[in-house]
């Protein structure tokens, strides 16, 4: 039986994460020639080339992607073992790493965690970011699943799959200051202040398409991917926002925001995105198939 050199595996993981031998060298405080030699030694022991060089950059081969997946799992489990022994609890829980698109409502992220805990006792790492950032993390198996508002992945990976958890109609909401806009909606929105998601969001493009189609020009006050900031600005009466009802349910209940009108034909759909099955396959499969948007 051939045994892994786990130092070499750790060096490989760092090179893959940092994207180059030079950056990994600085992080590990190991010389570049030594790192290159140890990477070659690991490739020889596994019998596969793990990187290919294109335009002076390193890219993981298919074998490299699989190796990185397992390297992440191995060192994650090693870290968990240290924590378990340190705390003297000797109890282990599955660790689920969730990537949440910045534009996903925090309420929805919370709901996903609550429903997952009901299915299985586990602990979470929540990583927020843009689609491109999270898809790269998912492709390298650094995270397990993504909560997204877009199913069209910005990646060439063929092992990434999306599953719709539901879609909801989008409405316009504002404070009492804007309640008069209910009359003659949506034409009443013309020249009114609005807070929008950034151009990275599918909802932003859908909203602009709707407004252009209706020949409505609004006054853009702010744009942010963070839905919490959007709602805070709306509550401060800086402008109106466009959201599905569940995202502002509590603020409506507290009478901080009011529904101004419905944007016919504009919906926001959410997806759970994961890779092909690996170590946590059954757990993630169960989450994807059971979790649905609440009304």
Architecture per CATH nomenclature, i.e. the level-2 architecture of the largest domain? 3-Layer(aba) Sandwich
First-to-last CA distance: 55 Å
Q: Pairing-aware structural class of the strands and helices? A: alpha/beta
Sequence of secondary-structure elements: HHHEEHEHEHEEEHEHEHEH
Specify the number of helices: 10
- Strand line-up across the major sheet: 4-3-5-10-6-9
Cα radius of gyration in angstroms:
23 Å
Strand content: 15-25%
**Domain unit count:** 3
- Contiguous low-pLDDT stretches (5 residues minimum) are none
Broad CATH class of the largest domain: Alpha Beta
Query: What is the CATH superfamily label of the largest domain?
Result: Periplasmic binding protein-like II
Shape: elongated
Chain-averaged pLDDT: 84
Determine the fraction of residues in helical runs and give it as a percent range. 40-55%
Number of strands: 10
Instruction: Write the CATH fold name of the largest domain.
Output: D-Maltodextrin-Binding Protein, domain 2
């Amino acid at each position: 039986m051939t045994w892994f050199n786990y130092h070499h595996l750790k060096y490989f993981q760092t090179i893959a994460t940092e994207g180059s031998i030079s950056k990994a060298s600085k992080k590990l405080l190991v010389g570049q020639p030594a790192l290159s030699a140890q990477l070659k030694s690991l490739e020889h022991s596994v019998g596969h080339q793990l990187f290919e060089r294109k335009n002076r950059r390193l890219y993981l081969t298919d074998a490299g992607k699989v190796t990185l997946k397992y390297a992440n799992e191995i060192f994650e489990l090693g870290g968990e073992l240290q924590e378990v022994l340190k705390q003297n609890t000797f109890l282990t829980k599955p660790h689920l790493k969730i990537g949440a698109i910045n534009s996903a409502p925090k309420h929805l992220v919370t709901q996903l965690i609550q429903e997952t805990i009901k299915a299985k006792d586990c602990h979470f790492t929540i990583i927020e970011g843009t689609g491109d950032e999270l898809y790269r993390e998912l492709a390298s198996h650094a995270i397990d699943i993504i909560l997204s508002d877009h199913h069209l992945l910005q990646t060439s990976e063929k092992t990434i799959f999306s599953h719709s958890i539901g879609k909801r109609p989008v409405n316009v909401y504002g404070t009492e200051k804007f309640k008069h806009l209910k009359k003659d909606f949506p034409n009443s929105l013309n020249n009114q202040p609005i807070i929008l998601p950034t151009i990275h969001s599918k909802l932003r493009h859908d909203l602009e398409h709707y407004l252009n189609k209706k020949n409505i020009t609004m006054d853009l006050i702010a744009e942010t991917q963070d839905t919490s900031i959007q709602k805070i600005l709306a509550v401060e009466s800086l402008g109106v926002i466009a959201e599905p009802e569940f995202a502002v349910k509590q603020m409506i209940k507290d009478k901080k925001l009011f529904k101004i009108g419905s944007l016919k034909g504009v919906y926001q759909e959410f997806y759970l995105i994961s890779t092909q099955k690996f170590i946590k396959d059954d757990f993630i499969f169960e989450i994807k198939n059971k979790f649905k948007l609440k009304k």
